[in-house]
Write a structure and sequence with these properties.
Strand content: 5-15%
Low-confidence stretches: none
Helix content: 55-70%
Mean pLDDT: 81
Number of strands: 7
Order of helices and strands: HHEHHEEHEEHEE
Shape: elongated
Number of helices: 6
Distance between the termini: 105 Å
CATH architecture of the largest domain: 2-Layer Sandwich
Oligomer: single chain
Strand order of the largest sheet: 2-4-5-7-6
Number of domains: 2
CATH topology of the largest domain: Heat Shock Protein 90
CATH superfamily of the largest domain: Histidine kinase-like ATPase, C-terminal domain
Largest sheet: 5 strands, mixed
């Protein structure tokens, strides 16, 4: 009986030891689980805080961008208003000055010495050129002030109208204009007519010894029409091409090709108002290819 009792007590001790180890293991597991849960909560709280900070920074960045865009719009409007007022108010005194200089030239022509006649001629030329620049600046400022009146515009009819208004220049240059079938686009007819007329006028004016040959066509792009005006004229160098749309930019000498350098800037502004793009590409065989896109409504 004593042997059995000893063996029983040993078995009880082993069972108790196993229970103690299991209890310790369970406590350790619970401790690890609680620690993991705390760490998870800490990480979640950190991520939530980081997300809040990110969203706050994003909202702040959006607000700064919106403020910058609004400030740019205000500055642009103020600049356009200044250009409009300045050019409008300068026209009359400049016109008067030009008239009086011309009267002076006619009244005293041949009565003064040769140098005086030369000075008067320079003054007349400068006043006339300044008048053209102010007229161009006024037209540029009016582009942004005028509300777009979009509707269906038959580009073929715009090209015909442009050819009619340029009839004398086309005849003088012995130019030939070839026109492919053109689409109807959604745009402001008056302003798009300005673009077409300006591009055709440039294609006819900037030519070399050969008579101007102008080709007008269109190609379909995803969500837009692309209109192309190609010529065989004197062309534009690749280095100068990006700058031809700048205000008052002249690629060629004024004495050879008169103008203000504002026409293409006006065209670019009109096309940008239509959410399109105006580009120029020098052609390897000579001449240039101007193109603009008009997105679908």
């Amino acid at each position: 009986m004593k042997g059995f009792a000893t063996e029983d007590l040993g078995e009880v001790d082993r069972l108790q030891a196993g229970l103690d180890r299991e209890r310790l293991a369970r406590r350790e597991a619970e401790r690890v689980a609680e620690s993991s849960q705390r760490e998870l909560l800490r990480l979640q709280a950190g991520r939530a805080l980081e997300r809040q900070r990110f969203e706050l920074e994003l909202r702040r960045a959006h607000a700064e961008i919106e403020e910058a865009v609004a400030e740019f719009a205000r500055s642009n409007q103020e600049l356009e208003a200044f250009a409009y007022v300045a050019s409008h108010d300068l026209r009359e005194p400049l016109r008067s000055m030009a008239v009086f200089i011309q009267l002076l030239a006619r009244r005293y022509e041949g009565q003064l010495d040769e140098r005086a006649d030369e000075y008067i001629a320079f003054a007349v030329e400068a006043a006339t050129r300044m008048q053209s620049l102010i007229d161009g600046l006024l037209k540029y400022s009016q582009v942004g002030r005028r509300q777009l009146e979009r509707g269906p515009v038959d580009l073929g009819s715009l090209v015909i109208q442009a050819q009619q208004s340029l009839a004398q220049a086309i005849e003088d240059a012995d130019a030939r204009i070839e026109v492919d079938p053109l689409p109807t686009v959604h745009a402001d007819r008056v302003q798009l007519g300005q673009v077409v007329t300006n591009l055709l006028a440039n294609a006819v004016k900037f030519h070399g010894d050969a008579p101007p040959l102008v080709h007008v066509c269109a190609e379909r792009r995803p969500g837009a029409w692309r209109i192309l005006v190609e010529d065989n004229g004197i062309g534009i160098s690749p280095e100068q091409a990006p700058r031809v749309f700048e205000m008052f930019m002249r690629v060629h000498a004024r004495e050879q090709y008169p103008g203000t350098g504002i026409g293409l800037a006006i065209c670019q502004k009109i096309i940008e108002r239509h959410r399109g793009a105006l580009e120029v590409e020098p052609l390897a065989e000579g001449g240039s290819r101007f193109s603009f896109t008009i997105p679908d409504p």
